[in-house]
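Memo to structure team: turn this sequence into structure tokens by end of day. - J.P.
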Amino acid sequence: MPRATSPDGDALELAFSGPIWYWRGPPPFLFVTVLEEGSAAIRAIASAVTYGWGVIPVTVRLGDTVWQTSLFPKDGRYLVPIKVLVLAGRRAGVDEVALSMGLLHRALLPIAGIPMLERVVDAIAQSEIASSVTVSSDDPRLVHSTPIIQ
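Reply from structure team:
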């Protein structure tokens, strides 16, 4: 959900969904295009919030992930850049599946002999849709036990 704040403190909040699409860089990026209605609302305040070239600083929330970025104008609408982020989360309590296999995290469960997390990171890296991949976990041992992301 992009949120742009004008110099006088007024905020415009938009909630929408749309397909994430790939733009081949350099570097490559992923974007979602703001719907026409939302783009019209942004255009109405753009002159007060842009820092040049029509680019507008915003705070974006996708699920529980929040980051600062900028909207880019394109063909009368706005583009929201999306980071490639792999979340290796875990539910509260003991993960019985991981524990039964002697693993510290469900993301390390093997699929055809290769840990799930390693498969995901490798697929993103080979797809050329991202210049980098970030793995976020509540347990640093997860990163240290996955050679592809060290």
